[in-house]
Design goal:
The chain has a single domain, classed as Rossmann fold (3-Layer(aba) Sandwich), CATH 3.40.50. Helix content is 22%, strand content 18%. It is built from 5 helices and 7 strands. The strands form 2 sheets. A 5-stranded mixed sheet has the order 3-4-6-5-7, with helices on both faces. The radius of gyration is 16 Å and the shape is globular.
């Protein structure tokens, strides 16, 4: 998603668009937005917000209820991994926004084994710059990862695109993580247990 990944010297914050993404999901208020902006355009309604000053990765996400996570886009390959891992292991439920890189190791090894439902919005979602103006046309589509029954039903009812559940009985055998294993499994020295 080259246009949404952080160009050198620019913000890596791409805000979720209200009318074309957040509003159709139909969740009036989330318990936590762990990637909230400091200021500027923001349509995600959440009782608790962690900004860059709070370091959402350093905070617990448990006990807040539904989480909406649109993590910072970055030029660093795999930058989404710690955010995704945190969502999978700590969020009580909610929605995680990421680029639909279905062939990446992190998508294969974290999203597919863990997601309750994945929504692939029709077309390409145009995100919003911090000043509220539309961002550039994206080069890739996104995936919305749902965790828990409320988030799954909200995505099913949103009309945003196709929803997919994973048949884990047809999953390939477990394999070793080839790249960024320390990011995926930091508690085990980067080794798959």
């Amino acid at each position: 998603m080259k246009n949404f990944e952080k160009p050198r010297g620019e913000s890596s914050e791409w805000r979720s668009p209200g009318p074309t993404l957040v509003d159709p999901i139909g969740i009036d208020e989330y318990g936590l937005d762990p990637c909230a902006p400091l200021s500027g355009y923001c349509v995600v309604r959440a009782r608790t917000r962690f900004t860059i000053r709070d370091n959402g990765l350093a905070q617990s996400w448990a006990g807040y209820g539904l989480v909406y996570s649109n993590p910072p886009w970055s030029e660093h390959r795999g930058a989404v991994v710690p955010w995704l891992r945190k969502f999978i292991t700590e969020a009580d439920g909610g929605i995680f926004v990421c680029v639909a890189r279905t062939s990446c190791d992190w998508f294969q090894e974290l999203v597919l084994p863990s997601a309750d439902l994945i929504l692939f919005p029709t077309g390409k979602t145009r995100f919003i710059k911090p000043d509220g103006s539309p961002g550039p046309a994206p080069t890739n589509g996104i995936a919305l990862i749902a965790k828990g029954p409320i988030a799954c039903e909200a995505l099913r009812q949103s009309g945003l695109g196709y929803c997919v559940t994973v048949d884990r009985n047809a999953a390939p055998p477990a394999r070793l993580v080839r790249t960024n294993s320390a990011d995926l499994f930091p508690w085990n020295g980067g080794r798959v247990a």
